[in-house]
Amino acid sequence: MTHSTWPEWIYIGVVTAILVWVGADSWYIEHLLDKVPEDAKIIKVTGQQWFWSFEHDDGTKEVGELHLKQGQPYKFEVMSKDVIHSFNIPDYTVLMDAVPGRVNTIWFVPEEAGEFPIQCREYCGLIHYNMRGTLYVEGT
Amino acid sequence: MVLELAKPRPVWQIMFSTHHTDVALLYLITSVAFLFMGGALALAMRAELFLPGSQIISDSMTFNRIFTVHGTTMIFLFILPFASAIGNYLVPIMVRYKDMAYPKLNAIAFWMIPVGSALIWLGFSDTTWNAYPPYSIIRAPGPAADMWIFGLKIIGVSSILGAVNFIVTILKCKHPDLPLSKMPLLAWSILTSSLIMLVAMPTFAAALLMLLTDRLGVSGFFNPAMGGDPIAYQHLFWFTFHPEVYVMVIPAIGMMYEIIPRFSRKPIFSQGSGIAAFVLLSIVSFASWAHHMYSTGMSFTEKTVFMVGTLAAVPASAMHVFNFLATMWGARIRFAAPMKWAVGGIALFFAAGAGGVLNTAMPLDFITHDSYWVVGHFHLFVFGTIAFGSIGFFYYIFPFVTGRMYNEKLADWHFILAFIGASIVFFTQHLLGLYGMPRRIFDYPAFPEWIAMNQIASIGAMLIGISMVIFLINVIHSSSKGKEANMDDPFGIGGKYYYPHQAKTPHHHSGY
After folding, report:
1. Is B369 in CB contact (< 8 Å) with chain A?
2. Structural domain of A96
3. Distance from the B499 Cα atom to the nearest Cα atom in chain A, whole angstroms
4. Residue A49 belongs to domain with CATH number
5. Same domain? A6 vs A54
6. Are residues A116 and A91 both part of a single domain?
7. Minimal CA–CA distance to B433: which of B422, B445, B420, B449?
8. Which of B147, B179, B265, B467 lies most in the core, judged by the most C-beta atoms within 10 Å?
9. Does B440 touch chain A (CB under 8 A)?
10. Which of B138, B231, B311 is opposite residue A22, by nearest beta carbon?
11. Inter-chain contact A84–B269, Cβ cutoff 8 Å?
């Protein structure tokens, strides 16, 4: 077969360039996200079949509801008592698996006041579909 | 290679045969039957999700069992056996050998599938097809989960035997006049996917055994209460099943390589780049498994490594797409059913690949992971690419198997409805994921956006369902009453473009 292959090489070059850009940008953003703000308050999040419970750093506990203050950074320490769950606040892109035997962390800053759904994103059995809670962000 | 349906034989003669075309027919019928069974489960789920609240399924446990068996069926009982069917038909012919290297082993590998599938379907487990512990070891109800484990064990062994057989047939029984570089790309796809299978599958086989002993309580590999680590299972699982994605998609691309040049009446743009892309894919497929696990608490470094490994698979996939488009460029294309499915499959493959790039970008993965985005994404692969390529090849091989032509008008309707349906369901599911809907849920709160998008997706699924009924009617009717095919050139492409079984000399394969 005699045909030129340069269009293929240009095409592969363009695809690779896009991939490098995507990879570099993701690396940069994830790098930023990796640094937890120093003034972040710690919230212990525990998943179990089939509800979420929360413990604030002052010792107050909540079940199925989480009350946070607008503009304050928070760091979640996510744990599980039985099977794997996944702690998720979709409106704030908070997603972290609750794995029994491990403590996973993720942080965020609630920038808008209001009510936001909390849900479980990893299949955990019978009532997985309704393992839900509510995040209340109180305005300052 | 006409497959004797034209000359009726007692069914037991086919069932107990070890001839490669007979085993291929068994694989073909089994896999397509499971496509319909798995599809029926999918339609039940989409009907359930049409509105919030319980619709046609009374409880979440039944729903959970349905999506588990749907996934297991489509992957292990439709996609993999279908590729084995096509490999069995064509690999011996393409390498110019009288049969598979080990005919009895071939038949054994097939006959393990009914046993494994019976365990999966009679058990009807609820563990999801990935069966993550600790749920699958401490909470999943038995004996369903145990039957699922044994079923997959048997099917895993069957896959390994099949892979060994293909590898030996291609590498050791190939005609000496046919250099490997001139072997048709479909045979290359079966070779590379078999090699991946052989390397990847034993890991999952081991993980299944560990899962079983964990369930029996005699070990605690994955049970944190006994000092085990559930994340270890996820690594073992995805070490097998990310490469498995390529085991599934590579034969489908190989089928497109068989269809597209022939219906474009042109030689393939570059045989060399096709081979290179297959080999590259089979290597990099092992570098990306943990991109399924970003949210399990992986470190920044781990995530970066697996992101790079995942992105590395994209250029090779893009080479295939380029090869197809360059082959079709300026060609006199005959848009018969196989070509329509192949081209539709390429379009959806491209969309699926683009979505995959977004998934692997670390920050974006935390938006899409375990949401309906992922469901839409991998269905664009498994249905949009793999099933499209497979169905296209089914139409392509139909006249050679039955001696009769399918009904082109019904095949058109099948394609149009399935393509529109697939676009509606799977692109909508992407959006649904961005709106935060988790996957694997029986019921959902009445957010207006979620309801609207679920309804759109369900309507799309019904279109696919209707298209598959048309397919079934076409296959049943045409295989007994269809008009007889012109066996020299059933698709009216023109004599110059050889069908694989007509090759008189090995060099006809690459030079068409």
Report:
1. yes
2. 41-138
3. 20
4. 2.60.40.420
5. no
6. yes
7. B449
8. B467
9. yes
10. B311
11. no
Is residue A82 located within the same domain as residue A131?
Answer: yes
Residue B106 to residue B19: CA distance in whole angstroms: 9
Same domain, A23 and A46: no
Which chain B residues have a beta carbon less than 8 Å from that of A8? 269-270, 273, 319, 322-323, 326
Q: Are residues A27 and A67 in the same domain?
A: no
Query: Which domains are assigned to chain B?
Result: 11-217+228-511 (1.20.210.10)
Helices B337-360 and B230-264 sit at what angle, rounded to 10 degrees? 140
Q: Which helix (H) or strand (E) holds B235?
A: helix B230-264
Chain B from 296 to 315: CB within 8 A of any A CB: 296-297, 300, 303-304, 307-308, 311, 314-315
Q: How many Cα neighbours within 13 Å face the side chain of B187?
A: 29
In Å, how far is B205's CA from the nearest CA of chain A? 22
- ipTM for the assembly: 0.94
Cβ under 8 Å to A: B residues 264-293? 267, 269-271, 273
Query: Which residue on chain B is closest to A104 by alpha carbon?
Result: B297
| Span B180-236, pLDDT tens digits | 998 999 999 999 999 999 999 999 999 999 999 999 999 999 999 999 999 999 999
Q: Could you tell me if A20 and A60 lie in one domain?
A: no
For residue B433, give the nearest of B362, B360, B355, B369 by alpha carbon.
B369
Q: What is the pTM of this model?
A: 0.94
What is the rounded (10 degree) CA torsion for A65, A71, A72, A74? 60
Total domains in the fold of chain A: 2
Residue A122 shares a structural domain with residue A76: yes
- The conformational region for residue B152 under phi > 0 = left, psi -120 to 50 = alpha, else beta, is alpha
CB contact under 8 A, B139 and A125: yes
pLDDT tens, residue by residue, B21-39: 899 999 999 999 999 999 9
